[in-house]
User: What shape does this take?
Amino acid sequence: MYAFMSYQTEDRAVAANVAGLLETLGIRSFMAHEHIEVSVQWRDEILRQIGLADLFVPILSARYYASIWCKQESGIAAFRRMTIIPLSLDGSIPQGAISNIQSSLLQNGQATYQQIFPGLASQDVAFTINAGTRLVAGSRSFRTAEYNFQLLLPYLNRATDAQIVELLNVSQRNGQVAHASFCAREYLPPLLRSHGHLLEPQIRDQLAQVLAQYAFPPPGTF
Assistant: This one.
């Protein structure tokens, strides 16, 4: 997956932060001020990179719309019917050719996974589910596990059996996930019921035992 970062020069640091977030999902990003060599024709390389990209991520601001280059980039992205994920620094909304797309506001110049996932899923839901599963696997606290799992919930009805099995496997291996309250009580039980038969018996039994601790009412209390 490849993203083209569109931004006004003064917002380069913000664009770099967003590119860093995308990188944690396995998405490479192109930033003109970082990746175009001095000897390269700027316009030609911009056009080439937009053509290569899967995602177009504009960092909107009043400065963005004061730049003819930024407006041209967004127009090209719209013409190519690219997946566009507009992020706003100051409340500026998409204009012109991308005015039909809703933007989300950056807080202190920082993007979140919640802002990225809907657009990413519209481009490639399988990629999104796999990226989200890796986030779940790397969760280091109960609250982070719940946050990461919530990112996946809107897309699990489009997950393959193999993807659900992998999500159950990583949840069983990571106690921060299996023992997180919402994961144990709400998110994991339906998946275990629908796909538990596809797990290795030992893994299925271990996960079922953990989830039983959080069931309400507890098993056997009727």
Observations:
- The longest strand covers residues 55-60.
- The chain has two domains: 2-123, 125-212.
